[in-house]
Write a structure and sequence with these properties.
Layout lengths: L3 E3 L3 H11 L5 H19 L5 E8 L2 E8 L3 E8 L6 H7 L4 E2 L1 E6 L6 E7 L7 E6 L2 E2 L3 H11 L6 E4 L2 E3 H10 L4 E4 L1 E3 L1 E2 L5 E2 L5 H6 L3
Parallel strand pairs: 1-12, 4-5, 4-6, 4-8, 8-10, 9-11, 10-12, 11-13
Antiparallel strand pairs: 2-3, 6-7, 14-15
Helix pairs in contact: 1-2, 2-3
């Protein structure tokens, strides 16, 4: 597996354990997804470009640094990716948000697109795709391809739990895309769910079945 960043900060690992627990209710699950996403955002944005500026403080002039370079965009994969948006926007309130709607056909397990809306200047931005579960990798691969077709050159994929088959799929289809995750699980079941995973992230976020 290549281009994988496993974020093992103790706070992230603790919250992922709570997220997996079948006894975690919808409210707490939603809060945990938001908190983990914000914590992961620190690492996902670690390579943002800085420039030096002069700032006047109450007691003098400080030479310090601010973010420069390309602007950022975040793109949740509907619907589960929506749960990660607020955590990222707490760190990056200036980021624009696009949306990609994909669902997995229950028979073929192949992704089907039903909605897509990107910022008007998406080609000028570095993009972080938000998808809580990287299972087969099919939906994430389609989302990455769609954004690449918009002439975006720098794309990262941020997920909470990834499967080894999903990582391998992204490595194969998009070897230039960095993957950021908080846990890596070994396998998928016959329905394409990550094992042990945490179940259906969308259902647990929104209280549906």
């Amino acid at each position: 597996m290549k281009n994988v960043h496993l974020l093992d900060h103790p706070l992230i690992q603790h919250k992922i354990s709570l997220l997996r627990d079948i006894n975690t209710d919808t409210k707490e699950f939603r809060e945990l997804v938001q908190e983990i996403s914000m914590l992961m955002g620190y690492e996902v944005t670690r390579d943002m470009t800085l420039k030096e500026v002069e700032i006047e403080t109450p007691v003098g002039i400080a030479r310090t640094k601010v973010i420069s370079g390309k602007k950022l965009g975040i793109v949740p994969v509907l619907r589960a990716g929506l749960g990660m948006v607020d955590g990222m926007l707490q760190l990056l309130p200036m980021a624009k948000v696009g949306h990609i709607g994909l669902y997995r056909d229950p028979v073929t397990l192949q992704p089907v697109e039903y909605y897509c809306k990107m910022p008007y200047d998406v080609e000028e931005r570095d993009i972080v795709i938000l998808d809580p579960m990287l299972a087969t990798g099919g939906s994430a691969s389609v989302a990455i391809k769609y954004i690449k077709d918009k002439n975006v050159n720098n794309i990262k994929l941020m997920c909470l739990i990834a499967s080894k088959p999903g990582i391998e799929r992204i490595n194969k289809d998009h070897p230039d895309v960095e993957i950021y995750c908080a846990a890596i699980d070994e396998e998928l079941n016959d329905h394409g769910y990550i094992v042990p995973g945490l179940g259906d992230a969308g259902d647990r976020l929104f209280g549906t079945k």
